[in-house]
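stage 2 :: seqdesign
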């Protein structure tokens, strides 16, 4: 079978920060090293993990999000009209809360220049021609979901907010394409929140109707990818929350499955299926496009123990009764470090997990 991104063995993207990265960021925070010195250390460590990803057999190679503190805020706060700030509290996970930070919309949203473009260009050069450089950014829905709106025109006209946000992402996608990106992933927690009874109630408390919000995000994302070049693959990771090996949302994909799999113009979905919180494969019945790829996140990134290979293969076989095998893929259920703190496993356990994904994929798909 020919491999097209997303690949039969793939991964969500973030990698545990190395000791050198952690030390450098600590020194930078107290002014012991400069921005230039920090970037040079990041460059060295990114080159290291690029080679590690190749070594374990992956075809899609990321920079591990090594230049970021967060999977979403670092990108969002560098959009025009968006600012990061120290919030009153962090994001509450099942057992722990993140450090305090958030973003607010203070002016018209746009995309002109962005540091992630140069970051991608560095990655692409480091990856070389024999592998694919994969860029990860937050879905536009995340700014709508997490951002505090203080810009009055958006408070007066919510549709203008959505329209400007979609146009900014259109420009971002084109900018990444012009920089050589052909594999872009949108990371999104909002869809899994709309599957969770607890999170749906929180959405209502914020003044939104969860079902209306689902339609808003469908429109927003489809507009954002509307002018995607034909030879660019855009996937989406539907995340239930990932911080220090904890989570936020639970519940199967049923409440959003029809919209996700039948109505979003996305090339592939990375889905979390590593435990009972994720529900069963029944919602995959809405996959009605032969070109849509479904990446089964059957390998957890939250712990270091390897899953039972027989059970993983059995679950792939079960899913293939709903979606043809050639449309299925395998990956860890999430990244290993959605924030710079990282999940609670060792770097070697992380690489073993990725080797395991490659091994099982070769057994199932033959390459």
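stage 2 :: out
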């Amino acid at each position: 079978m020919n491999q097209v991104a997303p690949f039969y063995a793939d991964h969500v993207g973030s990698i545990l920060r190395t000791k050198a990265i952690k030390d450098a960021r600590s020194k930078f925070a107290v002014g012991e090293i400069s921005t230039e010195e920090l970037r040079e250390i990041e460059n060295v460590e990114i080159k290291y993990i690029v080679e590690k990803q190749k070594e374990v057999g992956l075809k899609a190679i990321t920079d591990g999000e090594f230049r970021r503190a967060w999977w979403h805020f670092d990108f969002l706060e560098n959009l025009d009209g968006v600012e990061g700030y120290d919030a009153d509290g962090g994001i509450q996970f099942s057992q722990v809360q993140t450090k305090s930070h958030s973003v607010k919309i203070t002016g018209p949203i746009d995309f002109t220049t962005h540091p992630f473009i140069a970051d991608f260009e560095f990655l692409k050069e480091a990856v070389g021609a024999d592998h694919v450089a994969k860029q990860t950014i937050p879905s536009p829905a995340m700014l709508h979901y997490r951002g505090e709106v203080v810009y009055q025109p958006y408070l007066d006209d919510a549709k203008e907010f959505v329209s400007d946000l979609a146009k900014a992402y259109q420009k971002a996608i084109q900018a990444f394409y012009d920089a050589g990106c052909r594999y872009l992933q949108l990371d999104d927690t909002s869809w899994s929140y709309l599957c969770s009874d607890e999170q749906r109630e929180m959405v209502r408390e914020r003044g939104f109707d969860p079902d209306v919000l689902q339609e808003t995000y469908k429109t927003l994302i489809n507009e954002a990818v509307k002018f995607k070049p034909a030879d660019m693959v855009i996937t989406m990771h539907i995340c239930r929350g990932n911080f220090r090996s904890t989570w936020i949302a639970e519940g199967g994909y049923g409440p959003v499955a029809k919209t996700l799999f039948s109505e979003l113009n996305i090339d592939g979905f990375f889905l979390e299926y590593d435990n009972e919180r994720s529900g069963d494969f029944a919602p995959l019945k809405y996959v009605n496009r032969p070109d849509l790829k479904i990446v089964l996140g059957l390998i957890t990134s939250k712990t270091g123990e390897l899953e039972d290979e027989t059970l993983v293969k059995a679950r792939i076989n079960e899913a293939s009764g709903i979606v043809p095998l050639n449309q299925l893929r395998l990956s860890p259920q999430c990244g290993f470090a959605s924030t710079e703190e990282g999940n609670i496993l060792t770097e070697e356990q992380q690489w073993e997990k990725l080797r395991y994904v490659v091994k099982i994929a070769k057994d199932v798909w033959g390459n």
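stage 3 :: structure notes
- Residues 182 and 231 are 7 Å apart (CA to CA).
- The chain has one domain: 59-365.
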